Structure formats: structure tokens, C-alpha cells
Amino acid sequence: MTQSDWLACAGNLHAMLTYLQGKSSMRKWRLSAVACCRRIWAFLPDQESRAAVEATERFADGTIVQRELAVAQSRVPVTAVYRDFRVNLETRREAAARNAAKVTARPTMRPKTIRAEMRQAVDAVWSVEALGKTVQQIGDLQRQFCALLGCIFGQFAFGTLSLDPAWITPTVSSLATAAYEERLLPSGNLDSVRLAILADALEEAGCMVAAILDHLRSTGPHVRGCWAVDLLTGRE
């Protein structure tokens, strides 16, 4: 896939997920599923489901171990109600949201399967949000999902980007770390104001890479796993 092909995926969730299937780190795939789950936070009716999503995020960043993630996942109550069209929409949506949290928190460590499983998690969240939507609303929803995934995996549109170590000044480093750590909850979105300030500091340090600066200054959404912030903080 060329850069043009990648950019053409901007409104096609299936094409984007298919292209990404064998690419990127397990961490980014987990964070993409977490970011999608945070979109349906209001539909997660129990603390166990929310805790599983939060545990997945911590596991992706290496602050808890696989056993702890497995315990969090095991506590999520799941039923097949969301598949039963005789049940009212609200109940089905809540059940589907629990299922999405359960899938997202899968503790598997096998690189060959984790991408497929996290894609299932994205699809599970999609099913929650798409319930009851019109064709036009589903089109808008697909573009939102694509924008979110583009924030995490967008580096594929630009090829290999390298940073001049001179650009990572103490100010840039501290701003990038703060942008990653001090996000907005429960949405999980990174603060666009912080990212714009980070872009200014990076430019002042001598960076003229438009792809990086423009992404940091864009309206987003930006989430943990954002390719530009990961680049500046040394994450993969």
C-alpha cells in the first residue's frame, strides 16, 4: 500500500483494518482497542467492564502483568443478549459494550493472534455504536473510527520518520510526557492544547517535519498511542 492508498482509507474502516492486520506493535493494537472502548464508556454499565478496559491500557504500557489482566477480564459479566433482537435496544447495547470490554482485555501474548483479536475488539465496539444508527450516521461513525485509528497508526502514511536528537530538548521531552500522561478522562483523549504547545516547542527546537507538526496541531482525536507523541517519547 502506498501513501496515497493509505490516505484513501480515511473513510473505509474495513480497508484500514485489513491493511494494518500484520503491522505495528501489540501495544498499539491494544491501545487502539482501548481508545475505541472509551468511546462507549457511557454504555459500560458496570465497574468490572470499565476496570478491564483500564487494565488493558496499563498492560499495554507495561505497568501490570498478564496475570493481572486475565483477572480483570474474568470479572467482566457477559451475556449473549446483544444478539437477541427481541430485547430492547438499550439492553442490547449495554450487553454488547460488556462484550467489547471482554474482548479488548484478552490477555493473549502471541503476536500472530493479538492483532486479529484486537481487530475483533474494534469490531465489537463498532457494533455497539452502530446499533440503531441510520445509514448516514453509520457513515459519519466510520469516519470517526478511521480518524482515531489514523492517530495511532498514521505513521504508515508517511514512511519512516526519524528525529534529530537535538529536537528532543528538555522542554520538548517534558511536554511530550505530560501530553501522554495527563489526558482527559474518561474519554482518554490527549489535550489538543498541550499538543499544540508541544508542536510549537518542537518547531522552536528546529524540527521542520510538516507531518509531525501538522498532526500535533490537528484537532484530532488524539489518544494514547498517537504516532507523533510515541515518536517523541520513544514508544513503539
Question: If you had to describe this structure to a student in words, what would you say it looks like?
Answer:
The chain is mostly helical. It has 2 domains: 3-157, no CATH class; 165-233, no CATH class. It has helices at residues 3-8, 13-20, 26-39, 47-60, 66-74, 89-104, 111-130, 135-153, 170-181, 192-204, 210-217, 227-233. It is globular and about 60 Å long. The mean pLDDT is 86.
Topology:
Elements: H1 3-8, H2 13-20, H3 26-39, H4 47-60, H5 66-74, H6 89-104, H7 111-130, H8 135-153, H9 170-181, H10 192-204, H11 210-217, H12 227-233
Q: In a nutshell, what does this entry contain?
A:
With 236 residues, this protein is mostly helical. It contains twelve helices and no strands.
